[in-house]
Amino acid sequence: xxxxxxxxxxxxxxxxxxxxxxxxxxxxxxxxxxxxxxxxxxxxxxxxxxxxxxxxxxxxxxxxxxxxxxxxxxxxxxxxxxxxxxxxxxxxxxxxxxxxxxxxxxxxxxxxxxxxxxxxxxxxxxxxxxxxxxxxxxxxxxxxxxxxxxxxxxxxxxxxxxxxxxxxxxxxxxxx
Length: 176
Description:
This protein is α/β, with parallel strands linked by helices. It is globular, with a radius of gyration of 17 Å. The chain contains four helices and eight strands, in the order βαβαβββαβββα. The protein is 33% helix and 30% strand. Helix 2 links the parallel strand 2 and strand 3 (54-63). Strands 4-3-2-5-6-7 form a six-stranded mixed beta sheet, with helices on both faces. Strands 1-8 form a two-stranded parallel sheet.
């Protein structure tokens, strides 16, 4: 399958579709945990729509040329959250489920560190690839195959600050 391209409009539409899908399921949760970086924007929008606390679990698993090489996943030491305790009904969000290893390991991490708080945990992603060994509870787009997903913000991973400055100066000069 060829690459899958996502515009900012697509991205926000899919987050809204995910929010509606969860709402229509009737499941009520009292905490969102997002996997950062990919789930950060999604978690932010969902916590605003649902008015529930957001906790952030920082992870890293991609690197190499153009940030396309999947490696071992690394988790932060703890969650970043503004509440004294984690909620009991947790929605774990990320942008996509690829092989499923990140989502599976994040669930295990949460159960190990915070399992005594959690009564129920469900997962939500925008994009589910067919190659995934893990099926999230909620997803918006099912991708038959294993395409590379081009998200609208990935240009910043490939751009240096001097390139950004030059581009901004060029645009300012063209506007005059």
